[in-house]
Protein 1
Amino acid sequence: MVRKEIQVLSKNTIDQIAAGEVIERPASVVKELTENAIDAGASAISVEIKKGGISEIRITDNGCGIPVKQIHTAFLRHATSKLRKAKELDSIHSLGFRGEALSSIAAVSMVTMITKASEEDFGSQFMIEGGEEGELQEIGAPDGTTFIVRNLFYNTPARKKFLKSQQTESGYVQSMMEHLALSHPEISFRFSTDGRERLQTSGNGKTEDVVYQIFGREIVKNLLPIEQKTEYYSLKGFLGNYTVNRGNRDFENFFVNGRLVEDKILRKAVEEGYRGFLMQHQFPFAVLFFQFPDGTIDVNVHPAKKEIRMDHGPEVLSLLSAAVHERLTRRDDIIAVTLTKEKKEDHVTPKVSALPFEEKHLKQVNRAVEEHAASVLKDTAISRYTEEVTKPVQMSFLSEKSRPFYRIIGQVFDTYWMFEYDGKLYILDQHAAHEKVNYERLMASLKNKTMTSQMVSPALIITLSIQEAAALEEHRADIEALGFAFESFGGHEYRITATPGNLYSIDTKHLFMDLAAQAVSWKADEESALIRERVATIACKASIKGNQRISQMELEKLLDELLMLDEPFHCPHGRPTMVSLTRDELDKMFKRIVS
Ligand code: ADP
Ligand code: MG
């Protein structure tokens, strides 16, 4: 090995390395600079970004400003006005304190800062690019500070390569802004991307107003306030009731001593508290603010300070989950909430009219099904079905009106139906049967261009996470092909104005939410036919559940359709729709015959 001389790294190199830890993406710049503005006592903070924050981030606050003499120092690594000695680390209440943000940001972008300290007569403009200090000029400016950060990672192309699409990056910034706004209801925040306003909060100090401004009316009217004081922590915040449960954790928001955290103990406690109120793979809506006494938690575990360590994990876990559970079981609220929900939504009879589905979607659908039939997925349920429906025999086999002959005996356990058919006794699982019929219908409708859509009036309002909304937009064509029509309604809210027309007993609102939650994990370039099959599967899962009473007439309609299918005995996922007992088998059971 060739011995190389040991050298101290240059300031710029050190700053760039440090920037790697602190500044990962535009959202981290926004976080650091907004937290600085909060620490500076601002009551109004405006954040504008362009092109996902990669080309420009502009943050203006009306805080205390930086005195001209300290400007140079502020951009030095480990320069901070917030921490003097290591022992203060336990009791620190400001958001920043490592003194790394400004030096890191300046190392990997082009920064212009305009600041005026309230005690000084003039403001200053300072430029620093890639860590190289530029000029410092005196200029007229209001009290406070503006940062303009341009061309993030222009001098570190390897980092730039790791950024996601502009849309995704601005989504991260938006989430960040929402969390900052939630943890500081006393500050008025404005946030816009490429000139479009995305968030504005009033700064009136009321958390529920911020929740409303971010998540909208649907969420707010289904919130239960929760408060708890224990020897380990105190808690204030809101829990969503069961009507706003979600398909992912996007809506679990935990703040500890004013800081957004992702903590396993808190998450587990809350989810345990919801046990019995959540179906499998469902997660709650929660905005919870915790105060832990100084010295009992360590927020300095992670450079972005998202993780914490706490002294009394097990105690916190059990106290918190108990409080959440208690809050959810308190009867008064549940009744009140159910009543308003019923009055406002369920009891409004939607005006329904069938529309032939839009031609362009049908073309896409058709092409997708065609491609699919030819593809390698030949033996999946879809292609099997595609081949089957193209057989002309299928339709003449049994004319639409001719009913298979069966005799219904009755229903047991609100789930199973018994009937006699073709010399056998059948026991049918009504949910699996619905799923099967819906799935086959859906695939056939998509293929035969007979998918219909129902107008819904008034429109259904739902709340989506930023990730869900982005995924829905990405897969809009596939979801519209089902018969849905939807549009952004501002903030996180979406309006559903039409729902699938020819599906049985489906909770369309939940179907849409399920689609949104799952679409997050679909790849952008996934084959359309594959998406289509998933969509159909999800739609079918939303079919009437077991344990839901259906009338004998409804069952007859279902059986008529089911028994006309080529393979009526299994639902699309392989579960049986019915089991049968022959006369012989029964006779054997009762030892009438011995085999
Ligand atoms: P830290 O926040 O950890 O102290 P930073 O690098 O983020 O480190 O900031 C360095 C210092 O610059 C801060 O301690 C603060 O004194 C000053 N500063 C940064 N941003 C602002 C601002 N918006 N208003 C007033 N002072 C600021
Ligand atoms: Mg800081």
Protein 2
Amino acid sequence: MKKITTGLLSLLLAASAPVHAQDTTDKANFMILQPSDTEAAIVRKAANIVPTPRQLRWQQLELTAFFHVGVNTFTNREWGTGKEDPKIFNPTQLDARQWVRVANEAGIKQVILTAKHHDGFCLWPTATTGHSVKSSPWKNGQGDLMRDVAEACQEYGIGFGVYLSPWDMNSPVYGSDAYNDLFIEQLTELLTNYGQIDEVWFDGANGEGPNGKRQVYDFDRWYKHIRKLQPTATIAIMGPDVRWVGTETGYGRETEWSVVPADNLDQNSVAATSQQAVAFKPAGDMRGEVLGSREKIRNAKGLVWYPAETDVSIRPGWFYHPAEDDKVKAPEKLLDIYYSSVGRNGVLLLNIPPDTRGLIHESDIKALQEWKKLRDDTFGKNLASGAKVKVSGGRNKMAILDGKYDTHFTTKSEKDTTAVIELRLDGEQTFDVLMLQENISVGQRIEKFAFEYWQNGQWQQATAGTTVGYKRLLRFEPVTASKVRLRIESSRLNPTISEIGLYKNALTNGSYSAKQQQ
Ligand code: FUL
């Protein structure tokens, strides 16, 4: 575990974040703050920072999966050494369609394959090294796991991403300029031979190679190359589009701003109009409690849309270990993680490691199926649908119940930064989950809200929160009422609400207490 943490710690030393062209309106993916900007001007800028199309697509996936597989699967290790004999890679029943089918049936919308982990073993028949599936007995050296997973994703209609470890314990050129060239070649193979690639995931680990040397990674060059070959792919973690949430527990922040300070935006980069042209390395700790509060943005030099991805494994380890077959996370735990990742303005990246047969193990399948059922049973019926909506003032109030993310309610003018939305429900309803969504293509704005129900002649608070973002889920003790209201108490500019949902958690005793136990 310590080693993993060390790997992620190095993210902070060299992470990169996005720079994209500013458009002619007052909306942009990033903004420079001027010394003359008043606090109000800074808050206004923050409220007008929006995701790029690739970030918006990624955010709407909500659920994504990792497949960690490689030589470690066969050595029963978490990190390899780079000295493994490729002959140990010998899954006898490998079926990538089964992996993707299991993920798809669990409602997962995109999967990421560890094409190369830190040990350097490549799961595709690369021309850059013999240390690959080509030298393994699997399919007599004729196999290509990238191809198998890519084809399965196409068949099931889900996204496909690639994890390529910058750290390579096997490559003889690691630690020299030649390695940066080799890495470019590996990217070229992965990004040109397998159709559309939707995410490129870079971990921050930077250890020693076979010569005892460390590599200076040429991230900027790699980003430009990825933008050229797969312009719609998000570059995650050690990349400009998606940030690591800061933990591997599956639990994101209660207050999660997708707009965060970027102190080293460079004026020349900002002037550039091409998305491919620029990238910068954000300074500072991206693991703090709240990253984008007014206090945090007040003294920033720039602001950028840099949303959080919450990665966690369904098992204690990232790779398959037989001893963990009975340690697969329970469906209830996965549900709690769902509330605390997707429900906290994040995208969940759930690792499901294939076993030595080359299959997703039965224990994992069972947990995923039951998790999906819990979500379906909870979210299948919006108890707010059919409600009569009354607002304190504003436009398009019925958009909050039309089931369409792209339409939203907002207040009359930019200056109206509070709102009350009252719902007269279709009769008395019992519920214990609130779902809120802001339309992030307009910006992330809500800073404080409370949700109340009418009982005994007065309003009582069911729950309250700070940020909403793309999606916010909040659990509370079951409430029975026919009238509820959302009070938006503070927003950076006119707030938007795309959707409101009220649900009854399928777990009658457990969901709320599970949350309390965290
Ligand atoms: C970490 C790696 O060191 C782990 O092995 C795993 O791949 C995880 C997702 O990222 O940094």
